[in-house]
Amino acid sequence: MSRRALITGITGQDGSYLAEHLLAQGYQVWGLIRGQANPRRSRIARLMSEVSFVDGDLIDQRSLVSAIELVQPDEVYNLGAISFVPMSWQQPELVTEVNGMGVLRMLEAIRMVSGLSASRTASKDGLIRFYQASSSEMFGKVAETPQSEDTIFHPRSPYGVAKAYGHYITKNYRESFGMYGVSGILFNHESPRRGAEFVTRKITLAVAAIKLGLQDKLALGNLDAVRDWGFAGDYVRAMHLMLQQDDPGDYVIGTGEMHSVRDAVRIAFAAADLDWEEHVVVDPALVRPAEVETLCADSRRARAALDWEPSVDFTELMTMMVHSDIEQAARERDYGDVLLAAAW
Ligand code: NDP
Ligand code: GDR
């Protein structure tokens, strides 16, 4: 019998790559979908015939219990979240509800349906395995570089604070009820499917629009921010590997390479034979109230225990995204659609 996986956030970047990866591994894949006629279903349009869907929302406990009862998953991947960090200063309560309390609701749904209690002992056989999408944003104002599973958290945004809650409550349910729950502390990962509001995709969409003469300027915030950027397709492999271990644990996933937003701009414009300095302007309104200045992963635990390695480096990643966006923009122009770069 093939294993059953339930993915929250299946309409997101990671959800779409994870669904493809699990289907290729022979899983029956279910996606939790919220909202009537969710327009982001288009991201997984090509998988519609292979993936099953169940209605639900991380702010609705009842819907999560129903989803677990219906799907009877072997593995649950909780990728659902409001993932754009600046949104968390605009709607901190909502972000905390979804990204923090939503994790608790899913853990409770699994616990209720599985009948787990504090008295349950050691065996992990037959337990629903739970993956929580934790984030390098939890490190925030970093205490050390690079950051490992043992680095202390100092989140800098309501998003990071809510993710830290999700992280700790997953660990707490593992320790309190013997649940099989793991957190992947993933550093930034990107792809041609990345949302247009995130800086890499904002840059590559703008490069494409500038290349085709549809746009001239690109406004950005802090060009000095440093991140450890990898390819989303590599990172979903790590999520799956984490749930295949005998004992649940938390793992940092990243490339170990540091690049600034300025590097991202330079590489992306160069990939389209453009000079970034002619087009990029800094807009102070895009600088965050509290910035995470620098992040870099120490993934030695994952590399050793999961035998995981990233396969795409930063230049390849940015170049892949630029080429994909130029092709897409050219297609849209031919159909008469106007490409708009992100305004965030
Ligand atoms: P996306 O923003 O692309 O996708 C987010 C997903 O969450 C969407 O499918 C969205 O569905 C869903 N969602 C939003 N609100 C709810 C809700 N109330 N109930 C259920 N689902 C909801 O994010 P990514 O794919 O990039 O990231 C996946 C996860 O990994 C997120 O939790 C993110 O915080 C985390 N993460 C991401 C990193 C990255 O670099 N990409 C790094 C570290 C962590 P809808 O279509 O309905 O809006
Ligand atoms: P981040 O990603 O906040 O790290 O969260 P984002 O791409 O939004 O920002 C990265 C860095 O770039 C700087 N920056 C800009 N960012 C955006 N979006 N727009 C701009 O114009 C701009 N100019 C400079 C930012 O200040 C920041 O320092 C992502 C999300 O996927 C989270 O959900 C996830 O948890 C973390 O990565 C790890």
Automatic annotation (TrEMBL):
Pfam families reported for this sequence:
GDP_Man_Dehyd (PF16363)
What keywords is this UniProt entry annotated with? Lyase, NADP
Which top-rank group of organisms is this from?
Bacteria
Q: Indicate the enzyme's highest-level EC class.
A: lyase
Q: Which residues form the NAD(P)-binding domain?
A: 6-321
Q: Which reaction does it catalyse?
A: GDP-alpha-D-mannose = GDP-4-dehydro-alpha-D-rhamnose + H2O
Q: Which family does it belong to?
A: Belongs to the NAD(P)-dependent epimerase/dehydratase family. GDP-mannose 4,6-dehydratase subfamily.
Alphabetical list of PANTHER family matching this protein? GDP-MANNOSE 4,6 DEHYDRATASE (PTHR43715:SF1), GDP-MANNOSE 4,6-DEHYDRATASE (PTHR43715)
**What's the stated role of this polypeptide?**
Catalyzes the conversion of GDP-D-mannose to GDP-4-dehydro-6-deoxy-D-mannose.
In Swiss-Prot or TrEMBL terms, this protein is called GDP-mannose 4,6-dehydratase
Q: What gene does this protein come from?
A: gmd
